[in-house]
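queue> pop job 88
queue> type: inverse folding (structure -> sequence)
queue> payload:
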């Protein structure tokens, strides 16, 4: 929302929401530029956007460009009619993007633990015309895989330090270590659902929340990283053995990107099948 925007150093991006029939013409009158990401535009008029009918009608979504990467056809690419879990969903930017990519088919189980944020999530999904999603007001880590039909894709975008977004961010090592432990736990729990693919993303620049989480998760021999580096140019490598496969960006006021990190895990079994 607007409140958040005031506290970021970043320009505004909008995503066209085809679930509400949003189209490029809906941006007429906004001073906007294309981006390399389908349906995503950079706009310069920040103050008035909340007043626009197309915004209120859910035809456009305010969403940072980095936040539009995980669900993409080139990255997680959930197939239509499949089953998906979003482990940490509110306010629902990525959930609704997943839904749009699936054309509202199949089913997304969207977990959110926080009672206030779960309401925001519901409101946002309704506003955006999402109909293939069941909101689960629960701690994802307490969910049992055997209670769900086979899940093929997981999006895991857990709470993080937000070091890639917040203007006056002050690192706190205890908090970062605590977040890292939580992030590992939630990804490892998600892998118990045996998805074909799991996308992990954080808007952090700390190696603890990024590569060190991946490093730990890779101890599971059933999953490996898929190389997604070609879809967005990383601007930094910390020299981990898998650094060439992940996306890692510092926040950059010129490109308007927030700082973020994305890694795509794929089941080794599935990779073997795909490779014949
Ligand atoms: N993916 C969201 C989006 O793109 O709009 C942003 C998610 S935000 C980074 C993380 C969310 O996870 C918060 O709303 C938080 O309340 C929720 N959360 C944290 N721990 C959780 C857990 N164990 N189970 C479910 N939700 C959790």
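queue> result:
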């Amino acid at each position: 929302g607007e409140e958040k925007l005031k506290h970021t150093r970043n320009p505004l991006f909008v995503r066209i929401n085809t679930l509400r029939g949003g189209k490029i013409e809906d941006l007429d009158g906004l001073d906007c530029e294309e981006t390399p990401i389908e349906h995503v535009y950079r706009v310069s008029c920040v103050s008035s956007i909340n007043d626009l009918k197309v915004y209120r009608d859910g035809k456009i979504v305010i969403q940072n460009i980095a936040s539009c990467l995980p669900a993409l056809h080139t990255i997680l690419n959930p197939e239509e009619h499949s089953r998906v879990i979003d482990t940490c969903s509110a306010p629902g930017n990525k959930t609704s993007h997943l839904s749009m990519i699936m054309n509202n088919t199949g089913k997304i189980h969207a977990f959110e633990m926080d009672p206030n944020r779960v309401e925001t999530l519901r409101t946002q999904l309704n506003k955006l015309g999402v109909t293939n999603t069941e909101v689960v007001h629960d701690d994802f880590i307490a969910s049992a895989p055997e209670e769900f039909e086979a899940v093929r894709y997981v999006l895991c975008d857990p709470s993080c330090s937000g070091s890639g977004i917040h203007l006056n961010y002050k690192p706190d090592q205890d908090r970062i270590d605590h977040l890292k432990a939580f992030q590992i736990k939630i990804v490892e729990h998600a892998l118990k659902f045996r998805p074909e693919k799991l996308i992990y993303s954080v808007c952090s620049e700390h190696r603890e929340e990024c590569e060190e989480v991946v490093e730990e998760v890779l101890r599971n021999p059933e999953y490996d990283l898929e190389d997604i580096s070609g879809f967005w140019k990383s601007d930094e490598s910390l020299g981990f053995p898998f650094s060439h496969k992940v996306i890692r960006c510092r926040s950059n006021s010129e490109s308007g990107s927030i700082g973020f990190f994305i890694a795509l895990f794929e089941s080794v079994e599935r990779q073997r099948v795909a490779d014949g």
